[in-house]
Fold each of these.
Amino acid sequence: MELDRTDHPTAVNSSISRRRALQLFGGAAAVVPAISALAACGSGGSGGGSASLSLIYLGDATQQKAFEQLFAAFNKTHPTIKIAARGIAAGDWATFASTVSTQIAGGKVPDIIDVATEGQGLLASKGLLEPLDPYIAKDQQVVDDYFGDADPKFKEMTTKYGSVGGKTYFIPGGYNPVLMYCNTDVFAKAGVDLPASDWTWDEFMQAGMQIKSKTGAFLLPLGYSFPFVDIMPWLLTNGASTLNADWNTSTFDSAAAVESATFVKSLLDSDLSPKPGGAFDAAAQMAKGKLATLGGGRWPTLDMRRLGLVDKVRIVNWPTKTQQGSPIGWDGWPILKASKNKDAAWTFLKWMMSKEASEFYAQIGGTNVPARESVADSPAFLSDAPQGTDLIAKAMSYGTAIPSPNQGALTQAAITKGWQAAITGTMPVADALSQANKTLSTLL
Amino acid sequence: MTTAQPSSQVAPALDPRDRGRTPRPAGRGWVGYLFLSPALLLFVVFIAGPFVAAIVLAFFSWDMLTPAKFNGAGNFTAMFHDPLLYKALANTFIFALASVLTHLVGGLLLALGVNRVMNRALAYFVRTAVFFPFVISWAAVALLWKYVLDPTFGIFPYYMGRVGIHAPDWFTDPHWALPAIIGIDFWHTIGFTFVIMLAGLQTVPKELIEAARADGANPRQILWNVTIPMMSPTIFFATVITFIGAFQIFDPAQIITPDGGPDNATTTIVMYLYQKGFQSFQVGYASAVSLLVFLVMMIVTLLQFLGARKWVHQQ
């Protein structure tokens, strides 16, 4: 991983072990590029016409393939603008944001970053991004057409959380909620009916018990390291969350949150999930019939296609306790202040807002729900996808923006540590969440 | 017939002060510096430069993305009120002490065992097998052990269960997470200590052992009174190297327990430094912590050298 390096000084010793050598190189890598960082951040200017854009995005090998095709399609329509894209296979968005920030500090300043909700606050708060309002004003018709085709809640959400000081820094791309992918074969073997759309926590647990006894398959892989899927759906379907709506007060120790964690712990204690902390490959185990469900937004569809599971899987809403709930995260496309190709970068962002790009990305295997409802409701998005894919876009109506304060990586660490302690029983649930809540409150 | 040599061919009278010096061709001193320059450049860029930068940065508040601000001794005073720093230091000391102990004992026992193997082919095979994990990258080792110790599907918990032992949840139980990392580190790096010990063992003069045996010493007495004292410089070297390496442990703990493990049980000092520098973006504070790491390592190494006078046998 790019960030596998440390920043610490050197012990002078004539004998350098392998570990030591790595540390020395790591220390240098951390400090030396820093010297050039400020200079790099200070550069500016803009240009148009023929240009080469550098772009960073998050993606594993499967996702990178789709992104590369998307950029190639842009190059076809805009042959004078070349895109040199780099995919970072970070495990989550907070790590991605930290990685990108470190690269920027090291002088590798891209023109555009595809960054999700969890990292947007950090980048905007550091003054690294170019306000897009003048560009939007220049091409108001294009922007209006784009948001006119999106759910009004999407615009409201992205505007509220993506703007800093009244300025717009991001053009939102697609979004992702969290629903449940269910292996219909496993459910059928266990004699459990899948819900038409909604089901309750209790029904979910009963289904899990029956599946476990009849087939031996696990119900769901429970965990703590990816709050978007592992934690937030359980909180939101019980009316709880980690932070309040303005992301300035921590609410991780509310009675509803404690109830959510207690329920998840009971699933774990009932052996309905593989034990967290291991190396469980959910998609592969689902293909083997050893897992009944897994959580996710649009991105698991790519795995389902890869594993030939599209016809054996159905998507249903997350089980509820008191209400429907799902976190919503979206990717935003900012232009860096230090970019020397701002006009070309805006040309790319404009193209990304077009229906043509949205359809193309959805068809080739985009990892999120297109913001344009006309595309999300079209075969471009719905074909070659599990039954129930239409529910993914509908989750926007009841979804909640994933709380993403500026200290994204640290808040995520506090949340995961608290949840881990709660569900694995290393601390009483209420104490674990209370302790995490205190840490969260100091970060806000 | 003898002829007088021309004065130019007469060897110059040796100046006693020049004894031991190699005559240097006039005007070619730069060649020496030329040979030295790659190492010097690497030293300046990768060791001296970052070290000086860390000292300077420790007096600043800097988030990498906005200009640095002078913070005086603020980063150093903040360290005194940081409970997680103490926890990380404690974890690191426990890891380093366990690592030194297990590596010295394990490496020595392995070396003694392999040294007794008479079959050369078998000896080569065992040496290679023991050393092999050391050449595997930490990333691969960490993932491998994550699979092996997986509480649901892992081979290790499975066979422990077969013999009636309930395996703990290695990476989610605060009592077992650090011992698990210590065990993984042992498997990965024991080969290095083993090779050092084996080399040291083979330098012990056979005459001494034979003399001790002729005097009636049993194998245990030979080990304690001849072999180990004669190997003490090697053991000392292994102790210093192992401690320095162990105190900087980062890779397995970060890959297997990226957030520092349950209840920060596996947060080591270098992990903490990384978290502060690259997740909290408190580069100044991280630099101050790095200086603390340097100071601790320097003090411990000095103590080791001072203590060595009492037990290391100088031949």
Amino acid sequence: MERRVILVVLALAMVLPALGQKYKAEKGETSFFSKATVEDIKAENTQISSLFNATSGDIAFSIPIKGYQFDKALMQEHFNEKYMETEKYPTATFSGKLQGYTPSGPATQSVTAKGKLTIHGVVRPVEIAGHVEKQGDKLLMKSSFVVKLADYNVQIPKLLWQNIAEQVDVTIQVTYKPQ
Amino acid sequence: MRFIFRTLFTALAFTTCLTFSARAQDELLQELSTGQEDQGYIGQAFKGSRLVNGHSVETTSAGTLEFIFSHRFGRVNGGLYEMFGLDDAFVRIGLEYGLTDNLSVGIGRNSVDKTVDGYLKYKLLRQTREGVPFTITAFGSGAYKTSPKDDETPAGFETIDRLSYTGQLLIARRFTSKLSLQLMPTVVHKNYIGLGEGDTENTQAAIGIGGRIKLTRSVSVNAEYYYRLNATDNSPYKDAIGLAIDIETGGHVFQIVMTNTRGMIERTFITETDGDFFDGDIHLGFNVTRAFQLKSHKGK
């Protein structure tokens, strides 16, 4: 009896994640905003890739740091060269589970993504709240959260502390289509 | 007994599920990263558009206007009487604008020989992670000497004689994020020679070599040397040597300079450098640049 249960569970565990309804990011935009005494800094990035397995709840994001576009070219250069060390750490990633989403549930659902966020080579466990909206066979996910630069070992020179905030507001919005 | 077994099995099954699920998340991430291809342009080789006296391969980004204030004091070995050179000042005020990310245009006015100069700089090739090993920029400039005054010129001196031209190929490679080297084959043509003694060649060729070592993420040390290829033995002029410390803060680059030339344009520092660096004929100076973003850089 027990042996049979184990076999079934094992088989399910292996097959289920592969079987689930998978979604792939069709388009997306993420931006961050830093508010400091001297200047507000904003950058946008549309080069997001993401996969979401609606059955298992597994979700992953990968964002190339080079994709962030600033108004000032010099600022973009410094962002990559001095702060994010983009050559060493080219992407920011998240992998984890989306909790609170039921495929048969209402059109808009509040969800929490729980997993590992990797920025600037530093991996941290995070919980990020957001929304999922069903739009026909597509899904729209939205979230905004705060990232503290010190948590990810991003250092601001003392000379520039008035220009760069200690934490930035990140927003992300991704449209998924079934894969 | 049976209960214990059941609990054990459930626990085992549960952990198995978790393990596979964690694997599934990482697989998702892996699936993503294989789909992302980096176009692989490597970061800038130098912080500013100037290495020390001469240009670096870097051009000004599209829509950015750069104000460049360059300044050289007199010679350090002038002693206390000259306040170690601080009594003298040579100044170039310049503007550089990025028409595209690869094409810059610049103008400037230099107090040495009261010269007005203009130039175009075009980035022909950009170093990539794999494939292209160098960044290559073509540089062309013209300079108009407004000194001496028309009624003080030697006999036969015409307005066109005030002009000189420079053509340069700047070839740089960023070896690591800390070390970049640059080679600068250069030709300078002067329409008129003889205002300076021993200035015997209208067309002079030089090869420059330079580089930078980054000390911290905001500070780097640059060096530059121009070797004159067809300088005559009796030429009173010397090869230009320059050292600079670059300090970058936000929209500014400060360069603190030590060099044996007063010149801040190619004609002067390549063909008319009169100081002997190792004899203490060193000018302290600085280049200060301030970038103004006139057009949004987004979507470039």
Amino acid sequence: MRTALLAPCLFAAFFVGCLEELPDPAKVEGLRVLAIRADPPEAAEGQPVTVEALVAHPDPTVPLTLRWLACLKPERSSGFFSGGGNVGFSGGRGFGLDDPGSCFSIEQAGYDVTYLGDTMAVRLEVPTGVLSGESIANAYGLPASLPEPAIAILRSVSGVNLSVSLEVRSGGAKPDLVEAFKRVNVSTATPKNTNPADVLFHLARPGCPADDDETAPTEGTASPRGTCFGEAPDAPVALVPGTTYRVRPMNIPEDMQVYPVLLGSTNPSSPFGIQEKEEVYFYSMFSSHGSFGDRVFKSRATPSTTWELPSDMPERVPLWIVVRDGRGGTAWCHSTIARALPPGPDPCVGAPGETPATE
Amino acid sequence: MFAARSAFVCVFALALAARADDFVAPALQRFVDAVLPPGTVIEQEVAVVLSITILETGLPGEITVDVSAGDPWDLAALAAARRFEFSPALENGVPVPVRVPFTYRFRPTLRRGQFITERRERRVEEATPGYRYVGRILEKGTRTPLEGIAVVVIDPNTRVEYQATTDGAGIFRVDGLPPRRVKLEVVTGEHEPVAREVEGVPLDRAPAAPESDATLYLDPVGLSDYLTVVREKAPPKAASQVTLVEDELRKTPGTFGDPTRVVQTLPGVARSPFGIGFYAVRGSSFENTGFFIDGHPVLFLYHLLGGPGVLAPELVGSLDFYPGGYPVRYGRFSTGAVLVTTKDPPTDRWHADVEIDLLKATALFSIPFDDERGQVTVSIRRSYYELLLPLVQPDISLSYLDYQARVNYAIKPNLRWRFSALGAEDAFGQGGEVGDNGEEQDSLFILGFHRLLTGLTWDAPDNVKVETSLAWEYDRNNTERTSEDDDSITADFAGWFVGLRVDVDWRALPNLTVSGGFDGQFADLGANLRVPSLPPIGDPRPPAFDPIIITSRVEGPFTSTDPWVSADWEVIPGLRLIPGFRLALMTYGDESLRVGPDPRLSVRWAVAQGLTLTAMGSIAHESPQPFQYAEPYGDPEAPLVQGVQGSFGMEWVPEPGWLLKLEGFYNHLYNMIRPNASAGASDSGDLAQSFWSYDMQGRGYGLEVFLRKEYGGRHYGWVSYTLSRSERLRPPADWTLYEQDQTHNLNVAWSVILGRDWSVGARFSLTSGNFYYPIEDARYDADRDSYEPVYGEQSFRFDVFHRLDLRVDKRWRFDTWMLEAYLDIQNVYNADNPEAQRYSFDYRVLTAGPGLPILPTIGVRGVF
């Protein structure tokens, strides 16, 4: 058991602290695709699906051009059937040299893809035949002579992922191009997965009464306009520059959905088995200003993160929070934060969730 | 003829580090006076420095004049030295040739001339009345008794000289002294002269042993390092072999004082990232080169985080590196072998060695017993990272400990028993870490091994030597990660192995040695795992770590019973054939018997004086790693890896101590295992999965150039250059460069021994950068909230790697101990040398990755 592989990893980790800082993924400083939502995230053959993108840019006036394609391409890098290809250790990263591809590269190669449109939200008709044995074998790189029981399990538990690729181009002074993709799962499972709903967050200033873990509200009515804190879009939440706030998710189901997954087993004669898994929500934070204590956090235990606003924050600062369920379901909210005046002697007065400031 | 009597025999200052209890220095048995031409007057002392090769017979061989005094002194000294007789040097009881310096001094004659000579001779031949002085001469610092040192005592009143020579214990007795204070002088040429006033005592009161104040400590000068004997080495046992000894192992700059890290400066060895100390040799992978300590393989060679080797450097006697074609008495590695032979401190008395540097402390103590027939040695080393790390990284803890205990005992002069225990325990932890999800995490990694070894060495009649050893070892490796959000992850590996070796060497004829033996190994390694599974089929990886824990038990018993036979045959003078055959019989995985025949042939042909042609052909088999064959994640049918290698070269010795070696090589590896998760149909038609495929091949070919000045004398070191190409074949792709391919690899390591016990060393490394495929684009995975890189089709190389390491050593000698201090600076000019690239989250920003910065180390060492 040589420590040959462990030693350089630990050694490199030891020196990472001495390295040049890289851009913060939570900070939106240019054209970004922050999320893609499919509704429903898990569909049946022939079912229509609405696919929508969350595209962000620091300059909301920049013109954007979108293009959507859908295709069926083999799974890559999912681990179980990830194959090997020319796997190696290149320049310090493990990699699979072969390009996993996208609908755009498949199109360039001359294969059939489906054009979905050029708007922020498009419609996809799930084709029939996606769950055929041949299609399943192709999707997972399995032998063509796959036994029927295995096909049935894959069809009902794993399904097949249609790939939806999005290309966004921004104009303006600094044109840019971003490509993104999303999986739309097709299966015979019942019930099927749905997107997280009632996305709502609680905002409080640490140290203030509203920030109490025991008493902070855990449920509320989400805004139909998709704001993060339930506010009306024309009545933004005002926050004080140079201040740190805690953001807590609300409306987390007490009993998260439990669903079957297909895992590689430890029994060589039974290569995979069905196991029950409890859903978890993953929260990803994005903004153009400030820094987050945890850019991504989970719904287990006492989920929350902090957001430190800079002292020189502008009048309006965008905030996006994307919620994912780890199995394709996606939702998000968007708020615009206004710059607030400095608090009075008691910083909690006027803070979110606290006693409003008096004139 | 005028005979100059007064010659001082400058013999052999034997190194503390070099002098093992199995080496006996030669001793002058018959001195011959030099004959000068008639009428030659010696007005002042004249010294002629010679180098004499003392053959196994004790007779002088080649004699050269190193420092000339001109005529007639050189010729006279040469003529006399050719008639000297010595007792030969012994290594493991076998006479071996050595080459020694020898200073022949001609001292001015006294006015009384011949009369004095006669009187002196009479004193030498007969016990004379008068007073006696008994003293002892030891080397300053090492307390090594100096044998054969001439002592002169001068009566200041009469100017009469009295002489004596020290014996093996450094003791001398001067008789016939007058009853007054006289002047004692010791002048050797290799030591600072010593003079003091002494007074003899009447014979009936003379002590049998020297009084405590009658000890003189001689301080070596000039070549102040230990070894002034340039031994004729044992002949190489293969076509490609590099043997490192002494300070080459411990003082090569840039190696942390680790003997096994010195290997990375040798030809055929690719530079390993971050100096981790594992090597890709001649295009092979890290696991294809084996490390052995006293004949048994080592699983854990280094402490965590690229720390020092687990074996205390003070106990390393020598290191043999074979980039291919290693002797068949070793096996189970498909390319090369690094053989470490341990040694003990001298058995003449107790010894202690204490060393402290910035990160660790080492203590070693040895003591002989039963009249030097036996010796006990204990050594312990402990890091203190945990005291320093909180200043830099408060959440990280790191500690390691290693120990060795050894007992050697000569049951009979030809039967020696040894026992050793060695082991190490490392721990690395991160506490209070905040994970990606904001939850508190703690992680702990523990590494440990403990080995017991016992063995017998028997010098049997008829030039037969039998060596047996039995080793038992326990290894463990525990990893644990706890998180407030997730289930605990634990991976507990443990196992033990037993190794049994029997080696028989028979020197059947002066030109033929036949060897044979058995090398058995049994290992039972297992693991209890509570580890994350691979992501569910069809589900994307989540945006943050969210493990689904599965439990499993892995067991990987392994047996290997390998008989072997070899010969070393000088067919005609200068032409040596070294054939060998080993039959690897291994069981593992599905426990079917895997047979790996390992034939080997090395040829060394001295075609001219100092010029030897070498050639080698070798096949070697190696088992896969336990996690590659042990179910459920391994493939029980995984075959043996096979290495086929050949080389052709030449060695030129332009003068003693120098070597220039050129060697071309080709190394091909078959049945290499690589990760390749896939599914297929089992024999019963069900879906079956596998994680490995063994269709990968590897190859390396190139040219090695090695220029070396061997250890001994005022400087030593080497220049090593390798021009090579290393490739991998991973079907269905064609041959591509191997990730450790380095077209050019240059290492220059040189040390100079200055006066006054100073030495300086430098090492310069220049290698081609490792290649990489740049990331040219990236796509956002909206399910994973991360970017998927798209690699370019063309590879590039990092900038050339270059680094300079320096080391300075200084020793202070006190009468009974020595203090050494050193400064070792790795990467003196802080070259960047990134080992990898770093990209931003969207792969749009590229920065230099981590590399080893300037790394100074200082240490002090007390040798008692």
